[in-house]
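Researcher: For the record, we're logging two predictions in this thread. I'll number them. Prediction 1 follows.
Model: Prediction 1, sequence and structure:
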Amino acid sequence: MLKKYIDSCSRFAKLEPDFDHTASWNCAFLMDIDWQTYLYDPQHNWIDRLDKMALRRFFDENVAMEAMAFVFERLKKDNYAKLNKFQGKSQPSTFLISVVRNLLEDYADHRFGTCEPPLSFRNTD
């Protein structure tokens, strides 16, 4: 599917002389990405890559697994609504990683609470 997407972008670039060739993903409006297929495509191995990302973030394998369950639950919510906000300003892979990173931080806040500075550093005016 991604190959078809790239081919459609290159055909669009030939039709539009003012097309910015350095930002070839700007033609995302031509074709919607099926995020479920993209995410579970064995060629890209996203599941393992995202699992490693969670493990780097949390170090504990059990917490990382819980975090990924949280992430996939949020991604699947409303038929991949978070990922459907993709506007083509970057590559789909970059957008996916950014969304997952933010969701991992949401999980950390949910599980461990947000960090607050000590009272001695707060402005007490």
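Researcher: Logged. Prediction 2.
Model: Prediction 2, sequence and structure:
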Amino acid sequence: MTKTELKRYLIKQFEYSYERKRSLENWLIRFVCNDRGYAPQGKLTDIITHGCISGCVGSLIYTSDCIKFYTKYEEQIWNLICEFRESTGQTLGQFLDSFSRSIEDNDNLKVYLGWFAIEQTAYKLLNTLKSN
């Protein structure tokens, strides 16, 4: 998987450049392509295998950065959550209970939902690109 293949994927997914630039997919592709020392596929695999909680997404380690990310992509994050819940049959309560750590406050919730969105997007990207 090359950077060019990732960029082609984005163009194919989003008809308008405005939507493409503001997409969570674009954020993640930029992140994995700019991470020196890693092939994009390897970085996506690390995100899926270890999760954001491991610190493998360096720009989403601190709570304040995660909250900014959540605020920027909130609508897309909730769309991913709805898709996930529909595919698994989980209620919102079951979904929230499935996190490995307890949700202590609203900031904590935003961190976990942002991480979930990154991990789900990495999974989708990797599977889509493997199948092509």
